[in-house]
Amino acid sequence: CKALTVGFFQLFRFATWKEVLMMVVGGVCSLVHGAASPLMLLVYGMMTNTFVDYELEVQELADPNKTCINNTITWLDGTVAERPDNSTTYCGVDIEAEMTKFALYYVGIGVGVLILSYFQIALWVSAAARQIQRIRKMYFRKIMRMEIGWFDCNSIGELNTRISDDINKINNAIADQVSIFIERISTFIFGFMVGFIGGWKLTLVVIAVSPLIGLAAGLMAMSVARLTGRELKAYAKAGAVADEVLSSLRTVAAFGGEHKEAERYDRNLVEAQAWGIKKGAIIGVFQGYLWCIIFLCYALAFWYGSKLVIETKELTPGGLVQVFFGVLMGAMNLGQASPCLEAFASGRAAAKSIFDTIDREPEIDCFSEEGHTLDKVKGDIEFHNVHFNYPSRPEVKILDDLNVVVKAGETTAFVGPSGSGKSTTIQLIQRFYDPKEGMVTLDGHDIRSLNIQWLRSLIGIVEQEPVLFATTIAENIRYGRPGVTMEEIIEAAKQANAYNFIMDLPQKFDTLVGEGGGQMSGGQKQRIAIARALVRNPRILLLDMATSALDNESEAIVQEALDKARQGRTTISIAHRLSTIRNADVLVGFEHGRAVERGTHSQLLDRKGVYFTLVTLQNQGKDTDRVLECSLFKLKCLSYRRSLRQRTHSQMSNNIPDAISGKFEIHSDQFEIEEEETNNTEVIEAAPVARILKYNRPEWPYMLLGSLGAAINGSVNPIYALLFSEILGTFSIQDLDEQRRQINGICILFVSIGVMSFFSQFLQGYSFAKSGELLTRRLRKVGFQAMLKQEIGWFDNPFNSPGALTTRLATDASMVQGATGSQIGMIVNSLTNIGASFIIAYYFSWKLSLVVTCFLPLIGLSGVFQAKMLTGFANEDKNALEAAGQVSSEALSNIRTIAGLAKEKHFVSQYEEQLQTPYKGAKKKAHVYGICFAFAQCVIFMAFAASFRYGGYLVSNEGLPYMMVFRVISALVTSATALGRASSFTPDYAKAKIAAAQLFKLLDRVPKISMSNTEGQSWDDFKGQIEFKGCRFTYPSRPDIQVLRGLEVSVHPGQTLAFVGSSGCGKSTSVQLLERFYDPDEGQVLIDGRPSVSISVPFLRSQIGIVSQEPVLFDCSIAENIQYGDNSRTVSMKEIVEAAKKAYLHDFVMTLPDKYETQVGAQGSQLSRGQKQRIAIARAIVRNPKILLLDEATSALDTESEKVVQAALDEARQGRTCIVIAHRLSTIQTADIIAVMSQGVVIEKGTHEELMARKAAYYKLVTTGAPIS
C-alpha cells in the first residue's frame, strides 16, 4: 500500500525554507487557536459560580434580620449566621465588577483568536499557493521535455485533468485544511484536559457514553452506502428498460407501443422506489437514535454532576458546566477533524502520478544542451539495419531490419501499403523515437550523438493533417524559426503559394486561424504549414502525405508549391497517390517494415514488385481510388460537425457557382446546429419551486407529517436551552429536598425529549423520503412518456442519444427531490428553531434578547462564510486557471508538431505567463480568506462578552434571575449556529432546481409530429392507396445532404411496389416518411388521397406493418414479441399461433422446450437471424395491416432461411398494399411496379418485363447480376 501513495510530508518536498517557516508559524498559531474555546469554558465556569454565589447571597439577605459584614452573612446582632450544615455563607459579591472582568477576558480571548486565526490561514494558504505554483511549473516543464513515446502511453485527456484536478487536490491537502486539522485536534486535546482538571469523575462518565454516539454515526454511514447501492441496482432494471426502448425507438413507434413501454418502465420503478423509502426510514431511525442518545447523555451527566455538586461538594456548579462542555466540545471537534483526513488522502493519491512524472528522466531530452552540431550539413540520411516498435505497442514490429539511403539534394519517395513503416521512418529522422537496434545517420553521424534542438532545426516537415496553433497566420509561420522578419514570412508564403489567398483575407497576415486552424480550409492550412516549414530554410524536407487530404483543385496548387520547395533540398516524400510522386528522383518500395525495392518510376514498373501492384491497382480503379480516399477521409471526421466543416471547405475551394450559393445555407445551418448544442448545455434557468411542488401535490399528507416532525425537531434546541438554564437555577435553591426533586424532574424531561426526538426525526426522515421517492418516480415516468412522444428526428441530435437520455432520467429526476421534501423539512426546522428561540428569549428578558439579537446576523454570517469559503474558492480557482489550461491542452494535443518545430520552451514560457494571474489571485485570496475566517471565529467571543456583561448589569440592577441570562443567551446562540448550518445545505437545492428545469424543458417541448390520438383525421374504410408527390427531404441531423429530391411514385391498393437503387438513394427514407417518423420538407405523401400531415399518427401507424432488415425484438418471450404487433388490444394465443403459421414460424417454435414462452434474450440474441426475421413477420401479420413495408427483409439471411422467409413474405403480401425494398433483384421480380431510384428521385418505373425491354438502368442491374448496394 505504501508504494501506491506519497507520504504526507513528501507532499511538501518542493517547499523552500521560507515556506517551511511560514507553515511552522501557521501551525503554532492554529495550535494555540485550538486552545481558545476550552479556555473560554474556564471563564464560563468561573462566571457560573459567581452568578450562583450572588443568587445565594440575595436569597439570604432577603431575610430582613441578616446583613453582610466582612464578606460573611451575619445576624443583625453580630453573630455569624450558620447554615444547617454549620458552614458560613460568603457575601458581598460585586456582580457588575466581576462581570466586567469576565467580559474583558472574553474580549481578550476574542482578539487573540482574531489575530491567530488570520495568521493560521493566511500563512498556510499562501505557502501552499507558492508550492503549487512551483509544482505546476515543474510538472508542465517536465511533460514538455518527455519523449514522444511517453505521450503514446499517456492519454492527453488524462494529462490535462492531472494538470488541473490532481494539482488542485494536492493544493487542498497542503493548504488551510492542515491548519484547521491542527486546530481541531488541539481543541479536542484541550477540551478533554479542561474536563479532567474540572472534575475527573464526571469526565469519565461522559467519556464512557460517547462511543454510543460514534457508533450511531458509523452505522448510519455504512447502511446508507449499502442502501444507496441497492437502490441504484433496483433502478438499473428500469434504466435497462428505458435504454432498450430508446435504442429501438423506431420499432416502438411503428407498432404504437409507447403506452405499453411507459407502463413497463413504471412497473420497474416500483422496486427502486421501495429501496429509496427504506433508505429514508433508516436514516430517520439513525438520526433519531443519535439525538436520543445525546439527550440521554445530557440527562446522565446533569444527574450525576448535580449529585457531585450537592452531595459530595467535589464540584462547583461552574465546574459542572466546564466539564460537560469541555468533553462535548472535544468530541465534536474530533468528529469535525475527519473530513480533513479525506482531503489529505486524496491529495496523497493525486501526488503519486504527478511526482512520478516530475521525477522521471526523459529518454530523449529535447531541452538538453548535449550532443554536437555539424558546421556544414550535406543532408545524406542513412538507415542501418534499423529495428523498431512503438513503445505503446511493443508486440507489433514496425521496422524490421530496414536499410535505406537517402542522398543529399535528391527527392526520395517512399511508397508501400499502409502500415509498412513509411511514416515511422520520418519520425525516426526527427528523433521522436530512437531505434531499438541499428542506427540512423546524418552525413555519417549517428543522430543520437547530435544536439536535438539543432537537428530538428534542420528539418522542415509537412504532415497529412497540419496542425496550426490558435493565433494569427503570421505567428503560425513565425513558429518555424525564432527571429524571423516579416519579409522572410512573406517570402515563405509566396513560395508556398499562400501569399495570394492570405492577402485576400480582410486581416491579411493577422487573421486568426481559430482553434486547431478550424477557420481555414484544408488547402489553406496545408499551405500555411508549408510556409512554416520553408521559413526554417531547412536542409531536409519531410512530406508525409502532404496532399492526401485535399480535393483536386487545392491539390494541384499545393503540389506546385511543394515542387518549388523541393529544389536543392534533401526531400523525403510519402504519398499514396502515385500522381504526386512519379517525378521523384528515387522511389523506395516498403513492405512489412523493410525497403524491398528502389529505383525510378520506370525501373520499378519493370520489376513488377510492390510498386507495380500499387500502380496497377490504382489505375484500374482510377475513380474508385478517389472515392476510397474520400470515404476514408470522411471516416476520420467522426463527428458530423467536423465533417460538415470539411465539406463546406472543399466546396469553397472548388469554385463552382452553385456550391457557393449552397455554401451559405450550409453555413447558417451549421451555426444553428452549433448554437442549439451549446444552448442545451449552458443556459438553463432554474425552475420555479411552485411548479416542482405541483408535481408533488398528491403526497401532501406525507409532506404535512414530515413538516410536523421537522417542527418538533426544530423546537428541540430552544427547549434544551430552557432545561439547561433550569439546571443551573436549581443550584441556588436552599432546600435540599426541593433541589433534588427539581433536578430529577429536569433529567426526566431530558429523557422524554430524547425519546420524542427519536420519533420525530424518524417521522421527518420517513415522510420526506416517501414523498420524495414518489415524486422521483412520477417525474421519471412523466419524463419517459415525454421522450416517447418526441418525433424521431429529435433523437438524431447527439444531445438526445439513448445513453444521454437514460442518464437524464436516472440523475435529474432523483436530484429534483432536493427541492421539495428535504428542503421543506430544512426550512420548517430552521423556522421553528428560530421562532421558538426568539419566543423563549423575548418572553424571559426582552432587553437582554435585544442585545444578543444584534450579534445574531454576525454569527449567522460567520456560519455562511465558512460554508462559502470552502465551496466558493474552488470555483474561482477553476476559472482563473482556464487560460493556462487552454495553453496546456493545445500544447499537449499538438506535441508532435511542437517537437518538430522545437518550440517546447516557447510553450512552457507561455504557460508560466498564464499562471501569473491566478497565482497573484491566490496570494491575495489567502489574506481575504484569512480575514473572513478570523472574523467568523471571533464573533462568538465578542457576543458572549457583551451579552454576559449586560446580563450582569440586569441581574444586579433589575433583579433578573441569573438563570434567565443563561437561558436567553444559550437559546439565541444555539439557534444562530443552527441557522448558519442550514444555509450551508443549499447547494443541493440549487442543483435540484436546475435538474428540474431540464426535465420541464423536456416536458414542455412540443413535438414536431404530434402523437396524440385526438389530433388529425382517421376514417373507417382504409384502402391503402399511397402516393408520393414531389417529396424533398433532408435529415435534420445532416442538413447539408438532401436525401429525397422530388420523389414521385404511386401505388394502388393491393399492389406491390418495389424500390431498387444504390444505398443512400433514399429508399428507406421514403418508408420512414410513410410511417411519419419524419415529414417531407416539400411535397406531400398522400394516403387514400389525404396528405399524411393531416392524418392522426397512431391511426396511420396502426394500418402499417413493417419488417425491417435488422428486426428489433424486445427482451421478453416469443409470444409477447408477436403480441407487440398490436398494442391496442390483448392478442389472444389463437391469433399468435395463426400468425406464426403464416410466417412459417410455428413448427420451429414447437421444437423449443418452452414453446411460445421461450425468452428471446436482449435484442433477440438467443435466436438466429432467420428466426428473428420470422418473428418480426408474425408480429407484422398480427397487426393485420393494410400496408406492409418490407425494408430489405431478406438481405441479411443465408439462402436456406431466405427461401422460407421469402415464402412467408409472399403469403403476407396477399391483399395488402406492399412496399418492398430489396438488394437482391430475384426477390422483387413479381412486383407490380418496380421503381429504380438514384440520388433521391425515381429514374424509371414499370413492371419487370417493361423495364427489361427498356434496356436502361434496371436491365443493366439484372444482367450484371450485381447486388445493388
UniProtKB/TrEMBL annotation:
GO cellular component: mitochondrial inner membrane; plasma membrane
Residue ranges annotated for the ABC transporter domain, each copy included: 381-617, 1026-1264
Ranges of residues in domain ABC transmembrane type-1: 24-346, 704-991
Family annotation (Gene3D superfamilies): ABC transporter type 1, transmembrane domain, P-loop containing nucleotide triphosphate hydrolases
Chief location of this protein within or outside the cell: membrane
Transmembrane segments: 20-47, 103-129, 178-198, 204-225, 281-303, 700-723, 743-763, 850-870, 928-948, 960-979
Swiss-Prot/TrEMBL keywords: ATP-binding, Cell membrane, Glycoprotein, Membrane, Nucleotide-binding, Repeat, Translocase, Transmembrane, Transmembrane helix, Transport
SUPFAM superfamilies tied to this protein: ABC transporter transmembrane region, P-loop containing nucleoside triphosphate hydrolases
Membrane topology: Multi-pass membrane protein
Subcellular location: Cell membrane
Record-linked InterPro entries: AAA+_ATPase, ABC1_TM_dom, ABC1_TM_sf, ABC_transporter-like_ATP-bd, ABC_transporter-like_CS, P-loop_NTPase, Type_1_exporter
GO terms of biological process kind: oligopeptide export from mitochondrion
GO molecular function, one term: ATP binding
Family that this chain belongs to: Belongs to the ABC transporter superfamily. ABCB family. Multidrug resistance exporter (TC 3.A.1.201) subfamily.
Protein name: ATP-binding cassette, sub-family B (MDR/TAP), member 11a
Native source organism of the sequence: Cyprinus carpio
Gene this chain is encoded by: abcb11a
